[in-house]
């Protein structure tokens, strides 16, 4: 089974580190983790496109 992960923060003061670490601990390979740093008011999700 292939696992994929998605982590997102909505402000520049937030960090993706904890989310990415949790995904890796759950068995998701680093090259299958997609991330976004975007405002909550935007509906665009660059990491999911």
TrEMBL record:
PROSITE patterns, sorted: RECOMBINASES_1, RECOMBINASES_3
InterPro entries linked to this entry: Recombinase_CS, Resolv_N, Resolvase-like_N_sf
GO biological process: DNA integration
SUPFAM superfamilies: Resolvase-like
Residue ranges occupied by any Resolvase/invertase-type recombinase catalytic domain in the UniProt entry: 2-49
Active site (UniProt): 10
Keyword Metal-binding: no
Keyword terms: DNA integration, DNA recombination, DNA-binding
Gene3D superfamilies: Resolvase, N-terminal catalytic domain
A molecular function GO annotation: DNA binding
Residues in coiled coil: none
Name of the protein described by the UniProt record: Recombinase family protein
């Amino acid at each position: 089974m292939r696992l994929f992960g998605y982590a997102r923060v909505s402000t520049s003061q937030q960090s993706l580190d904890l989310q990415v670490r949790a995904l890796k601990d759950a068995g998701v390979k680093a090259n299958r983790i997609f991330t976004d740093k975007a405002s909550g008011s935007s509906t665009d999700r660059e990491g999911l496109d």
